[in-house]
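user: can you give me the structure for this one chain? tokens are fine.
assistant: on it. calling the predictor now.
[tool input]
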Amino acid sequence: MKEKELSKLRPRISISRNKNCITVGRDVIRALENPDYICMLENKEQHSIAFVPCESSNVMSFRVPEKALTDHHCIFRICSKRYVDSIATSVDLEMEQAVEFYGSRWELGKAVIFELNQVR
């Protein structure tokens, strides 16, 4: 994907505490140039999480659905009560419904970073 196309993307995730899942938007996958696996990295000091491409052997790897970019019915969800609760409590979110966050692509490497203190 060309740099101009990458700059037009709006990477988005939503966190749902009552469903205990993180929904990863298609533009996150596009910004990472359609990897087979991604890792979610949490920075508690800066209240942010990042998604980066990784190998399947990584402990925090999640398989990107094969049809994530071609089938509009395909939804990429990461479900983990413990992880969603950890994120929500680290930024003091009281969520009854899903909360959306918009991220930015890190120019120096393949990463999409979400500032969790910027709720949309």
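assistant: here you go. The helical segments are 3-7, 26-31, 81-90. Residues 3-115 form one domain.
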